[in-house]
Design brief:
- The structure holds three protein chains of three kinds.
- Chain A is an alpha/beta fold.
- Chain A is built from eleven helices and twelve strands.
- Chain A is globular, with a radius of gyration of 22 Å.
- The model of chain A has no long low-confidence stretch (mean pLDDT 94).
- In chain B, the strands form seven sheets. In chain B, strands 1-26-25-24 form a four-stranded antiparallel β-sheet. Chain B has a four-stranded antiparallel β-sheet with strand order 2-3-4-5, with no helix packed on it. A four-stranded antiparallel β-sheet of chain B has the order 6-7-8-9, with no helix packed on it.
- The mean pLDDT of chain B is 96.
- Chain C is mainly alpha-helical.
- Chain C is globular.
- The relative contact order of chain C is 0.11.
- The chains are: A alpha/beta, B mainly beta, C mainly alpha.
- Chains A and C meet through helix 3, helix 5 and helix 6 of A and helix 8, helix 14, helix 21, helix 22 and helix 25 of C.
């Protein structure tokens, strides 16, 4: 179902990424008026044009931008912005700003890509617990904390002891145990988990690459994603996150470090894909649950609205999309940047143009699409 | 020694703001404060588990300039901390910090350079089971509350064991999970005998001199006192943690003042509200000193609802200018008073 | 005798989080009915003292964040001597699901749980009134936005639909009147607290806790028509009417049945529910009376009722930790225990919506099953844990120099529960025990290797399908 071979990697920046210090309006004096302390120096910015540029900590992404592989979605958000982490992230995850949604948009994508759930590895999350974005009743999604130890009994370190335990598990869960539907369901689910884990764990062994990822969690996460991608298990949706971008204080140092890590990881991942000739098969989407306030608080910035998202991939038509919000006082939305495009437009574009699926039931409505990716 | 009968303690200001990040101005569950050799204010951030790697000491001054900070992250490597409790400057201007999980005393320079350490888990000399309150006298001798061994240990400035006293119990000279510790001008040792709800006073060799306070909420009583400091006149200031208040006794043990806290907005707090006018507006029409219903009418709950009150007053310190510092772990601030 | 043990173990799995053999022995001394009475009317609980928790865990003193608050409640569940009090509070928490995500106020949530402890066994009428006054509930369902001049129906609707009568038993008009009756039921400093909640604000000085305030000038005191009755109803009057309705009795009894007896309601279950409804009315709407009827029913005590529930994640985590003897004193990483409940799909204090969690077999998917098994296997295969040592001692004490695999398995199953397993599972366990080699003893005691061996078997039992059931 859907366009074969195309996959999506979603990188969630948790905590609310500061848009103004990511894509910097360095040519606008008012930026420096509002950001007396927490700003990027003009001479450090990597220019896109005379007004806007990237923070220097996005250098690898700027490099890809110059190759035309990065679409910057400016002023992304939704009506009635919510400035609470949980609620706003839920909104992005369920594509439901107005009521509490129960299904994740990516869970729905996975379901539509694999309606008969033939492949339990269609969607893989790298991190513990399942993000709401991937949650739909009946859609299996693997959540991998550590690819090397993923699966049952990770705490048994001794190989032979682990094998004995797994054999016993397979015996107990694989055998027939009467007619009780709940016990049968448990048996089936256990065997699925065993199978999925066995498959996933072979990915690192099959992998070889000249790219050396950095030693931080997001880089290692992207490496795991590359390993699973290149192992060709049929995984179409990958998810991971980095943070915390919630820089209420000490922002300059923290924001710089986080973006060094994210952009380094994404740059290395793209290069890895390119090395294997697969860069045209993958789209990376980087987003955050909201942007931050226009005015800083002396040490950092507080929750705002209206943010930025990045779409990166070999088939992406690079450039600046949406509109960079005005930072003039008169245009503020309660002290924040005014969004100008609904995030569901970006979702719809990916769902339809990239995956070839009907976006309307997935994002709960019709939204005008961008043209940032070749179908 | 002066026997005071009245005392005047006047609120001066509040410094602090919660900082949930990994660096920068503000505090994260401050547990102790110490005044450095140049008069700067050193604040020990215990930090909650979600930001363990942010565990650090922050340094500011009375004008609320955030000067610098230092920390080596969460762990038991040199300089690192896990559950820091208290700190004290010694006569040479070195900063000693106790850690009740690694069972260690670490010595830093006032710029955060690691100069040394001693201690490990155990019950013998040189060993600890949860070192907590710490104080040094003018000759550099160090006194430490050894919580789960229910004793006080005494060391030279460089960690050579000298003596110890105490065991678990409720009689004089016995302790139950002692927390804070303070010295007076005569090098007498005062111990916040936490679970015995009292302060015990000893001479510098551990001979019991006096017991102050017993369990309760009345004016002369204490519930789980966590720290004790003595001013130049011998008055005794107790962080009455369980009652969310500060109690002041004279040198005889007579109660002279009871403070509940009256925090106002610090500079950093005002900066925050300038960038967040929506919160300022709704705050202005609020009553931050509400009456609470009966079922929440105990100090802990009252303080959780009443922003100006002490909440989690874990430590109290008096500087050379007769200024009193009360450190609130749950409010991420220090209330400063002047003693007259 | 072993039937009594089995029955008591079943009762404790339902009315609590399972019991260790030591605990079962004590309950057996009292007998079944006395135990039921004691569970329903427990008196003060013995549990990990508050001062020790707050001394050690600064995050549980301040409650600025969710994981500390979740861990605080877990400590209570792990160390309480009143298991039904906590299990029932967990039931109310799932039913009146109020979540952290919108409130960003952990103290308010824990206060709500405290209220469940206080009122959970008593009259359903009193409980619903307290719920309507609960600040966390007020903000959660926007009753602070429910004004005389601008009604907000959220609480009024959910009170009827999700908390008492269920859809189909009242009209849209009843919802409106119900909402009107609750105007003015708000919290102190509601505007400031609501802005802070919506922004997750902790500035400048951390969180400020909440309490209930009634704003008379914002209350619609006019005449209302509700479920056929007429009057100038205020919220309490509405609740008075609700609790007398038959659908309320049925709703409450059914939910209690599903939580404490069986995930599915069959014909026999329907009969039990009828008896529970009778008790509800006869006792003056008392929850304890309804539960007493259930626990003393033939249905509850029958074989068919055993293992007819899938354990929820919290139940599973707490039960396992209690069996292992973990977290009996302040422990450094206890907040990661809360994280476990999150990974397993039941983040304590964080239900995703007011509909709560989908229980029963819906707790299980390949992700959550793996998390549950890994946690339980790790906890219980640790021979240094006090609870595990107790089990090993009991298992080996009847023997002298060795135990055959078959007996070892049966003995472990007995002293871990007793836990009943099917033939295939038992076969797998015996094979596993055999693969570890024959267990050598010295006068009925294991050496270090032997203990480790038995512990591995105990961990494997905790990995079975049957262990997922209560």
């Amino acid at each position: 179902m859907g366009n074969k071979g195309k996959s999506l990697v979603v990188v969630q920046l948790s905590g609310g990424n500061d848009y103004l210090n990511t894509v910097v309006p360095y040519g606008d004096d008012e930026y420096y008026d509002f950001r007396k302390t927490v700003h990027i120096e003009q001479n450090k910015v990597l220019p896109i044009d005379k007004v806007y540029g990237f923070s220097p900590h996005l250098a690898p992404i700027k490099r890809l931008y110059d190759q035309g592989k990065v679409a910057v979605i400016n002023g992304i958000g939704y009506d009635n912005p919510n400035r609470s982490h949980f609620r706003s992230m839920d909104i992005w995850h369920t594509a439901q700003p107005d009521e509490i949604g129960t299904e994740g948009w990516l869970g729905r994508v996975i379901r539509d890509l694999d309606p008969n759930a033939e492949n339990v590895l269609t969607g893989v999350n790298f991190g513990r617990g399942l993000p709401r974005a991937l949650g739909v009743r009946g859609v299996p999604v693997a959540s991998v904390g550590n690819l090397d130890t993923y699966g049952l009994f990770p705490d048994i370190k001794d190989e032979s002891a682990k094998k004995l335990a797994l054999d016993a598990f397979a015996h107990m869960y694989g055998g027939v145990q009467g007619k009780d539907p709940v016990l049968n369901f448990l048996g089936q689910t256990g065997m699925d988990a065993l199978k999925g884990a066995d498959i996933l764990r072979t990915a690192p062994q099959k992998y070889s690459s000249a790219i050396e990822y950095a030693a931080n969690p997001i880089a290692q996460g992207m490496k795991s994603i590359a390993q699973v991608m290149l192992a060709d298990f049929g995984t179409r949706v990958f998810y991971t996150q980095h943070g915390s971008f919630d820089t209420h204080s000490g922002e300059i140092l923290t924001h710089a470090k986080l973006w060094d890590e994210v952009s380094g990881a994404v740059g290395d991942f793209y290069d890895d894909m390119q090395e294997h000739g697969r860069e045209d098969e993958v789209v990376v989407m980087i987003f955050s649950e909201f942007g931050r306030r226009i005015k800083d608080n002396g040490s950092g910035t507080d929750h705002g609205s209206g943010g930025v998202a990045f779409i990166i991939g070999g088939e992406v038509k690079g450039g600046m999309y949406g509109q960079y919000p005005s930072i003039k006082e008169a245009d503020h939305l309660e002290g924040d940047l005014h969004f100008n495009n609904d995030f569901r437009s970006t979702y719809s574009t990916i769902v339809e143009k990239w995956f070839g699926l009907d976006p309307v039931p997935i994002v709960n409505g019709h939204f005008e699409q961008f043209d940032f990716v070749n179908a | 020694m002066v026997i005071t009968n009245t005392i005047s303690i006047r609120y001066l200001k509040t410094i602090g703001i919660v900082n949930n990040g990994f660096n920068g101005r503000g505090f994260a569950n401050p547990y102790d404060v110490a005044i450095g050799p140049e008069g700067n204010i050193f604040v020990l951030n215990r930090c909650d588990p979600a930001r363990r790697n942010a565990i650090r000491v922050g340094v500011c001054n009375l004008d609320e300039e955030y000067l610098y900070e230092f920390g080596y992250g969460f762990g038991d490597g040199d300089g690192q901390m896990m559950l820091p409790v208290a700190m004290a400057f010694d006569a040479e201007g070195r900063l000693l910090i106790t850690d009740e999980h690694t069972n260690r005393i670490t010595i830093y320079s006032d710029e955060g350079e690691v100069l040394g350490k001693w201690g490990q888990k155990g019950e013998s000399e040189g060993e600890f089971n949860g070192p907590a309150g710490i104080a040094t006298d003018s000759s550099g001798t160090v006194y430490i509350c050894d919580q789960r061994n229910h004793r006080v240990q005494k060391y030279t400035a460089d960690g050579m064991f000298l003596t110890q006293w105490g065991s678990q119990g409720t009689r004089a000279g016995e302790f139950n999970l002692p927390w804070g510790l303070g010295l007076d001008a005569d090098d007498n040792v005062y111990v916040a005998d936490w679970r015995n709800d009292r302060i015990q006073k000893f001479d510098s060799n551990g001979h019991h001199l006096k017991t102050i306070g017993d369990s309760g909420v009345e004016e002369d009583q204490l519930i789980r006192p966590s720290a004790v400091s003595i001013d130049q006149s011998g008055n005794i200031y107790v962080a009455d943690w369980g009652n969310e208040r500060l109690q002041v006794f004279n040198s005889e043990g007579k109660v002279m003042a009871s403070l509940r806290g009256e925090a106002t907005l610090s500079h950093w707090a005002k900066d925050f509200f300038e960038s967040n006018p929506d919160e300022m507006e709704t705050r202005e029409i609020s009553d931050l000193n509400p009456d609470v219903p009966d079922h929440l009418n105990n100090p802990y709950h009252i303080s959780s609802q009443t922003e100006p009150f002490f909440w989690g007053p874990v430590s109290v310190r008096i500087d050379g200018n007769n200024q009193l510092y009360v450190v609130e772990s749950n409010r991420h601030r220090i209330q400063i008073y002047e003693i007259e | 005798m072993s039937q009594d043990v089995s029955l008591m173990a079943h009762l404790m799995r339902r009315a609590g989080f399972g019991a260790t053999r030591n605990e079962l022995d004590e309950y057996l001394g009292d007998g079944y009915e006395t135990t039921v009475d004691n569970l329903l009317d427990p008196g003060e609980s013995n549990h990990m003292p508050d001062d020790l928790i707050r001394r050690y865990h600064v995050d549980q003193s301040e409650l600025r964040q969710l994981d500390g608050a979740g861990a605080y409640w877990l400590y209570r569940m792990l160390t309480t001597s009143n298991p039904l009090e906590e299990k029932l509070a967990l039931f109310w928490h799932g039913l009146f699901a109020t979540g952290y995500a919108k409130l960003n106020q952990a103290r308010a949530l824990l206060n709500q749980i405290d209220m469940f402890r206080q009122y959970g066994f008593g009259s359903f009428r009193d409980l619903l009134v307290e719920l309507s006054r609960d600040p966390a509930m007020i903000l959660w369902l926007d009753n602070n936005e429910n004004h005389k001049e601008a009604i907000n129906e959220n609480y009024g609707r959910e009170l009827l639909e999700l908390f008492s009568m269920g859809i189909g038993n009242y009209s849209e008009h009843d919802i409106k009147e119900c909402a009107k009756a609750f105007t003015g039921w708000t919290l102190k400093n509601a505007e400031y607290m609501s802005v802070r909640a919506s922004k997750d604000s902790i500035w400048p000085y951390g969180r400020i806790a909440w309490h209930y305030e009634y704003r008379a000038d914002d209350h619609d005191s006019g005449e209302k028509k509700f479920l056929g009755e007429v009057g100038n109803f205020n919220g309490e009057d509405i609740v008075d009417i609700i609790v007398t309705q038959e659908p309320t009795a049925r709703f409450l009894s059914t939910r209690l049945f599903q939580y404490f007896a069986s995930d599915e309601v069959d014909d026999d279950g329907v009969e039990v529910i009828k008896e529970m409804m009778d008790s509800y009315f006869e006792s003056g709407f008392k929850v304890s009376a309804v539960l007493r009827t259930l626990f003393n029913s033939d249905y509850f005590k029958s074989e068919k009722c055993r293992y007819s529930r899938v354990k929820g994640p919290v139940e599973s985590v707490v039960g396992t930790a209690r069996l292992a003897g973990s977290y009996q004193e302040p422990t450094l990483d206890v907040h990661s225990l809360w994280a476990q409940t999150m990974f397993m799909g039941q983040g304590l204090l964080a239900p995703p919506t007011v509909e709560g969690w989908h229980e029963g077999v819906e707790w299980i998917d390949s992700g959550s099953l793996v998390e549950r098994i890994n946690f339980a296997a790790k906890e219980l295969s640790d021979p240094t844990k006090g609870g595990v040592q107790d089990i090993i001692r009991r298992v080996t004490s009847g023997y002298k120099d060795f135990i055959h695999a078959e007996n070892l398995v049966d003995s472990c199953l007995d002293f871990m529960g007793p836990i009943q397993v099917g033939a295939n599972t038992r076969e797998g366990l015996i094979e596993f025990a055999e693969s570890l080699g024959e267990l050598q003893l010295k006068n009925g005691k294991t050496d270090q290797d032997g203990s480790a061996q038995v512990a591995r078997l105990i961990g494997m039992i905790a990995s079975t399908r049957e262990y997922q059931l209560a």
